[in-house]
Each structure stands twice: as C-alpha cells, then as structure tokens.
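Hi all, long-time lurker, first post. I run a small reading group and we've been trying to get comfortable going from sequence to structure in the token notation. Rather than ask abstract questions, I figured I'd post a concrete chain and ask someone more experienced to write out its structure so we can walk through it together at our next meeting. Sequence below, copied exactly:
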Amino acid sequence: MIANTGLTAKRRSETGKGAARRIRAAGQVPAVIYGKDQEPIALTVDAKEAYHLFHSISVENTIVNVQVDDDAEVLETLVREIQMHPFRPDIVHVDFYCIQRGVAMEIDVPINYSGTAEGVKFGGVLEVIFHEVRVKCVPSKFPESIEINVSELDVGDSILASAIHVDEDVELLTDPGQTLCLVAVPKEEVVEEEEDLELEEGELAEGEEGAEGAPAAEGDASAGDEDSDD
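-- Answer (accepted) --
Happy to help. Here is the structure in token form:
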C-alpha cells in the first residue's frame, strides 16, 4: 500500500513576491493547499524539513499528512507541484492537493523493473519505454509501485501494460496494449543488416543494368543473318 508521512505547516496571511522573498529568507517555503469544494489555504513549511522529506519519498503517490498550526484535523494531501530555484537546490514553492477519503482519484504509479533479461545476456538491449502507469482508486488503495520482472524476455520480446496485475479496487488507466519495455536488437547489428541490404540492392541494380546492355544471343544473330540473305 501507499506510504504515509507527515509535515508541519503554519498559516500565512502575506502574499505576493515581496512576502515570498521574506518567507524564504527566514528559512521557510511558501505553500498552498487546495482541493475540491474548498478554499485554498496559504501556508509556510520549514525549508529543511520539506527538502529532506521530498528527497526521501516517492512524491507522486505518497500521502503527506499536513498538520496546520494546532488544528485538530490533519489534512491528507498529495504533492502536486514542487517549484525549484533555477540554479540552487532550494524549494521555491509547494502545491498540495487535499484528498477526500473514499473518493477515487487518478495518480501515476512508478514501475520497478527487476531481473536481467535473458536477451541482454546475448547482446540485446533492454529499452524501458514507460517508467510509470496511471491508475484510479481511492487513496487508501494507492499502489506504492508496480513490480515487473524482465528475466524471461528474449531478444525481440516485450511486456505490455495488460500484463500488470493490480487489486480489484484499482483501475488501470494506461492502455493495456501499450508496450512498457522490450529487448531490442543491438544497434550495431541493425546497422550491419541495413548495410548488407543496401549492398544487395546495389548488386541487384548493377545486374539489371548489365542485362539491359548485353549482346543478343547466338540464335537471334543467326536469325538476323537469314533475314539479310533474303
């Protein structure tokens, strides 16, 4: 199941660029919590606490329990956006989405590929096309990750989204026919095959040109002589 973690926050009344700069200078990060049928709540969170938390969890599908001031109710949220400074490892702003218990919603779940594909042992290359899939379910049923073992894949084999097994309460939204990963032929072999094909086509073309310019057969020549005698 999905992991839960906590974060403390304080309400803020100041808004705007000037206020945001003062907040960040004080070691805090401006944030906001929004959700369906509720007014956005402007907050501040500790910069160091937020930085360490977001680097230790799967941000996309971890429920963050936000404790706002001394409120009795802890808000269950998902991190929707983390804005980073363009050239410093500093968080500039965080958007949280307040989830509703028992109400299904869509999230992206990361895929963990395990094992060494059989085809890779013989020179193939494992190409991962999708690193996550989209599902829909109530928050308490969010999968933490999707596990896929690639050990049995030979060169040319692939795994489709239809191979994913999820709980009955979880709906897979990614197209079942979508290829998640495959073991491809090494690029060097592909180049060699293309070069061989071009060479064969070139030889065939030269052969056709030679046939068009070839002299007439002996039978045709003798027939021509007979015509001239007449």
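A couple of things your group might point at:
The radius of gyration is 32 Å.
Residues 216-230 have pLDDT under 50 and may be disordered.
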